[in-house]
Recover the amino acids of this structure.
C-alpha cells in the first residue's frame, strides 16, 4: 500500500523534475484563472441571492447547522463577495498570513450553500471549489515557492481523477449495470427539453438528440462511452496518460452538452489547463524568445 | 527535500480524503466542494420539472387542464428573460411539499409581481416517465395561477396535493 501511494505521489508531484520558469509562470496564470472564477462566482451568487432567494428549500453543507436565510437580505451575500475579493487579491500576491486561502474557502462554501439553497445541487463549480481548497492546503502546508505549485497541481489532478471515477461508481450503485440503457437517455433528454423550453420559450432537438431518440442502440452507445470515460478518470494520476484521459473527458463533456444541453464552461477550461503540460510550451517559447523572459528572470531575482 | 514532498503530499492527501469521506458520508454525498458526484446516478426514474405558461388570452375553462408540452393552452414564458434561474424555479416547484401562503407568494416574488401587470401566468409542474418499453410520456400539470394581485391554487386538485405534511 505504501509503495502504491509513493508511486502515485511521484506521478502527481513529480519530485525528480526540476522546476523551470515555465512552470512558475504557468502556475501563476492558473492561480489567476482560479482567483478570477472564484471572484466571478462570489459576485454572481451574491447578486442572485440578494435579488431572488426567499426561502431555504434545501440546506446544504454548513447550512444544515444554521438558518442560511439570514444571509438573503441586508446585502450580506454581497458583503461576503467583497470580503472574499479583497482576501483573494492579498492571497494571490502572497500578502498576509498563509491561512488566507482557507478563510476564502470557508466564505466561498457559505456563499455556495446560501445561493444553492433553492433545491438544485449543481456540480459545474466543484472544480473551482476544489482548486481553492487545494490552494488553501498548499499555501498552509507547502508554502515554499518550489513546493506549492507541485502540491496544488498534483492534488487538483488527484481530486479530478477521483471525482470522475466516483461518479462512475455512483451510477453503478445507484442504478446497476444496466445504467447505460439508452432509454434512460431518452428520459434525460425529455427532462432537459422542458428546462430549455421553460428557460428560452422554445426548444427543438439537435442532430445528436434526434439520433439518440430514434434508436435505443445509439443512445446506449452514447451512455456507455461516457460511463467508461468516467471509470478511467483516475488514470489522470499518471503523467504519461494524463493528456489522453483529459482529451477523453473533454470530449465526454461536449457529448453531455450536445445530448443534455448542460454546459460545463469552467470545468472544461480547467481540464484543459491542468490536463496538459503547458509549462513545456512556455519553456520552449523561453528558449526561442530569451529576451522576453530575461526581464521576468531579472525581476524575480531582484524580488528574491 | 524533494522526496519529502511526495511523502508529505500523500500524507496530507490521505488526511484530506478521510475528512472528505466523513463529510460526504454524513451529508448525503454532498459537502461542497466535496461530492460523490451522484448526478444522473439514478437512471430510469420518473422526473418532475416546471415551466410557466402565459394564459392571459386563454379561456378560463382551459387553463387548469392537463396538457402536453407540444400542445399548450398558452405561450411558454421564457423565465430567463425575467432573471430567474430555470433550475432553481424547477426545484422550488418540485421539491416544495407544503404550499403555504409564504411559498406561493415566493413564486410570485421570484418573477416580480410588476411583471404580471394585466397578465396571468400558470406555474405548472411537468412530469415525465417511461410508458411501456419504448416511449416517454410528458404531461404538464397546471399548479398555480399567478396574477399581479395574488397566487391561486388549481381548484381541480385536492388539498392533500398542496399540503403533504400538515404541521
Amino acid at each position: 500500500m505504501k509503495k502504491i501511494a509513493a508511486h502515485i505521489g511521484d506521478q502527481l508531484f513529480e519530485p525528480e523534475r526540476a522546476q523551470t520558469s515555465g512552470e512558475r509562470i504557468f502556475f501563476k496564470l492558473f492561480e489567476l484563472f482560479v482567483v478570477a472564477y472564484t471572484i466571478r462566482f462570489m459576485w454572481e451568487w451574491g447578486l442572485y441571492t440578494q435579488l431572488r432567494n426567499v426561502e431555504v428549500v434545501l440546506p446544504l453543507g454548513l447550512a444544515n447547522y444554521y438558518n442560511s436565510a439570514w444571509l438573503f437580505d441586508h446585502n450580506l451575500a454581497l458583503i461576503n463577495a467583497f470580503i472574499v475579493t479583497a482576501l483573494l487579491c492579498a492571497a494571490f500576491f502572497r500578502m498576509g498570513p498563509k491561512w488566507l486561502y482557507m478563510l476564502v474557502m470557508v466564505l466561498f462554501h457559505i456563499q455556495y450553500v446560501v445561493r444553492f439553497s433553492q433545491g438544485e445541487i449543481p456540480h459545474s463549480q466543484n472544480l473551482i471549489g476544489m482548486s481553492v481548497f487545494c490552494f488553501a492546503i498548499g499555501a498552509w502546508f507547502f508554502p515554499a515557492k518550489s513546493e506549492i505549485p507541485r502540491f496544488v497541481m498534483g492534488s487538483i489532478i488527484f481530486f479530478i481523477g477521483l471525482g470522475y471515477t466516483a461518479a462512475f461508481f455512483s451510477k453503478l450503485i445507484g442504478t446497476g449495470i444496466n445504467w447505460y440503457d439508452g432509454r434512460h437517455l431518452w428520459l434525460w433528454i425529455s427532462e432537459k427539453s422542458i428546462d430549455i423550453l421553460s428557460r428560452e420559450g422554445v426548444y427543438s432537438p439537435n442532430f445528436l438528440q434526434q439520433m439518440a431518440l430514434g434508436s435505443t442502440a445509439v443512445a446506449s452507445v452514447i451512455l456507455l462511452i461516457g460511463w467508461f470515460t468516467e471509470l478511467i478518470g483516475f488514470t489522470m494520476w499518471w503523467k504519461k496518460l494524463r493528456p489522453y484521459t483529459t482529451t477523453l473527458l473533454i470530449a465526454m463533456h461536449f457529448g453531455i452538452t450536445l445530448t443534455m444541453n448542460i454546459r460545463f464552461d469552467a470545468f472544461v477550461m480547467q481540464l484543459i489547463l491542468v490536463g496538459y503540460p503547458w509549462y513545456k510550451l512556455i519553456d520552449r517559447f523561453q528558449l526561442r524568445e530569451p529576451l522576453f523572459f530575461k526581464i521576468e528572470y531579472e525581476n524575480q531575482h531582484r524580488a528574491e | 527535500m524533494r522526496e519529502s514532498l511526495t511523502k508529505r503530499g500523500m500524507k496530507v492527501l490521505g488526511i484530506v480524503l478521510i475528512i472528505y469521506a466523513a463529510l460526504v458520508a454524513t451529508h448525503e454525498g454532498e459537502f461542497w466542494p466535496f461530492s460523490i458526484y451522484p448526478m444522473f446516478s439514478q437512471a430510469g426514474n420518473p422526473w418532475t420539472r416546471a415551466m410557466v405558461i402565459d394564459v392571459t388570452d386563454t379561456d378560463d375553462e382551459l387553463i387548469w387542464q392537463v396538457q402536453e408540452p407540444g400542445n399548450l393552452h398558452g405561450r411558454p414564458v421564457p423565465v430567463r428573460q425575467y432573471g430567474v434561474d430555470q433550475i432553481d424555479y424547477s426545484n422550488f416547484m418540485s421539491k416544495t411539499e407544503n404550499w403555504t401562503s409564504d411559498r406561493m407568494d415566493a413564486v410570485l416574488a421570484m418573477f416580480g409581481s410588476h411583471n404580471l401587470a394585466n397578465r396571468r401566468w400558470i406555474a405548472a409542474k411537468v412530469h415525465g416517465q417511461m410508458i411501456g418499453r419504448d416511449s416517454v410520456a410528458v404531461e404538464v400539470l397546471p399548479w398555480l395561477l399567478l396574477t399581479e394581485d395574488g397566487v391561486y391554487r388549481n381548484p381541480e386538485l385536492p388539498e392533500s396535493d398542496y399540503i403533504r405534511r400538515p404541521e
The CA atoms of residues 46 and 129 of chain B lie 4 Å apart. The mean pLDDT of chain B is 90. Chain B has two domains: 2-35, 47-162. Residues 2-35 of chain B form one domain.
